[in-house]
Amino acid sequence: MGNNSALKRVRKAAFGAVVGVLVVSGLVSFGGGAAVAAEVSSPPPPLLQRDENVVTSDPIPTVQIDDGYVWAQATIGSTVYAVGEFDNAREPKAAPGTALTARSNVLAYDIDTGALLPFAPTVNGVIKAVAASPDGSRIYIGGSFNSVNGKDRWNIAALDAKTGELVPGFVPSIGGTGVYALATSGTSVYAGGLFTQANGTARKNLTAFDASDGVLLPWAPTTNLQVDAMVMDPAGADTIIGGRFSQVSGDTTMRGLGAVDKTTGTVDTDWLASDSIQNGSNSGTASGKAGIFALTADATGVYGTGWVYGGAEVGNLEGTFAVEAGSGKIRWIADCLGDHYGVYSTGKVVYTTSHTHACGTMGLHPEQQQLTHRYSEAFTADPRGTLGHQPNVNYKDWAGTPAPSAYAWTPDWAVGVTTGMGQAGLSITGTGNMISVGGEFRSVNNGQFEGIVRFSTTPPGGATDKPRLSGDSWTGAVAPNAEDTEGVTVTIPANWDRDDLTLTYELHRADSATPVATTTADATWWNRPAVTLVDTTATSDTSVEYTVVAKDGDGNTAISGGMAVVAPN
Questions:
Q1: CA distances from 481 to 416, 488, 556 (A)
Q2: What pLDDT does residue 511 have?
Q3: Alpha-carbon gap, residue 269 to 156, rounded angstroms
Q4: Cβ neighbours of residue 49 closer than 8 Å, sequence gap 6 or more
Q5: Which position among 50, 234, 239, 495 has the lowest Cβ density within 10 Å, counted as fewest Cβ atoms?
Q6: Any residues with CB less than 8 A from the CB of 83 and at least 6 apart, and which?
Q7: How many CB atoms lie within 10 A of CB 349?
Q8: By the 8 A CB rule, do 177 and 193 touch?
Q9: What is the pLDDT of residues 389-430, one digit of tens each?
């Protein structure tokens, strides 16, 4: 799952020629690094300008962790519960090692203010899963621990959502490596992970309990390898499970992703998604080298993320998927290469965390000559086109499959080192107009945000992230027009913005208070077409200095370095 896999290095070394050519405003943009599929790719879904439904790229001050990582999150009302492995919370924007408050692998904060809440249970081991009870009164945690608040609890516990105290009467136990996934429905609590027994009874990686008393339920599907994710189907009778397994209760068509009846545990062979998405193997050295990392749901669909260490025969999806509630019919696939982790849907926008390094099939960046990772994406919840051909022959070609549009939304993340995975965000949750990203990142947009950060569609103080280039790092060429045409032409590479696709460009003369030319252009960090602006008022006998101002939709600006045209003597 990390980006340092020797196998992935071998695959990347095999990359060959240019993946595509894009001509915009006279500029040819080359993406490099991968072998070209023989067929001509169909156009990918259009890349979109951020709208009112998409959070800005402005990170909002939020309680941090002081070293460690946040693995999973859940939300009740305006409270976010973050779990993982950490010993302290840190005040928003505080430097490492300062303004600390003790927290033991779990904390809660107010997503509206970013402030730490008093909720402070103590857990003596890593927590990998957290889920809210349907009525919002409890938080269930799962992981690898044997003590919570000083009392015996074996890999699973229920906490009062306000006080953090253990819920009386709920004392189940799970024996094995740990619990990595939790889900709730009605009076049932479902757990998945890597384990062999529950309440002293044989269970293999899946089990369920009665929420009222912790009694083991007869629900007992099995997997051959670990379960990493669970979610309840919002429109059906199933529990959806994800992980690195290659079969569910003996059904080998469910590789990494499957559905079982939430009451009986019977495999739902009519659920369609597992017919297409096959991320799991139990064969030799390929065993456990692909899987589904996370699952989430909104009112109409189930969403998940995939990762692959082996070839397409081991796992066929690195990226994100959306399937219809109830049927499991594929709604769309976003096959961005690079392991994917957290996923969250607002019902209109689907956010993911990843280490994406190639996503030309989706209208995002193709593989770069110098390997470049991006760590978060935002997609439409509905399909907007179909995937182009996958140029890298080591991965499945999903060409023609319905696909969402991506938004031009790309915050900068400094990856962490705690897990050894070398990643940024690992989980996402949210409510209202806010999302919360948790992980092992050390900063966001070069600011002090560690392990937890918020983004909003309406950040306090407004959207302030501006075009990225300015001054001497952004200049162009100035030339007089042809002899029979008055004026001067300024040509400059387009600027780019972390959360805006379309920018407005103004040409300013040093001797004029108002712009002498204006235009708009779309650009991204990987594709910066030439922008041409013409000053028709200039004369050939005038020496003039020009600057170009790039402005985003929120009025944030960046100014180029000066560019001069000198009149002939």
A1: 52, 5, 31
A2: 84
A3: 30
A4: 407, 408, 500, 501, 502, 522, 553
A5: 234
A6: 70, 71, 72, 73, 105, 106, 127, 128, 129, 130, 141, 143
A7: 22
A8: yes
A9: 999 999 999 999 999 999 999 999 999 999 999 999 999 999
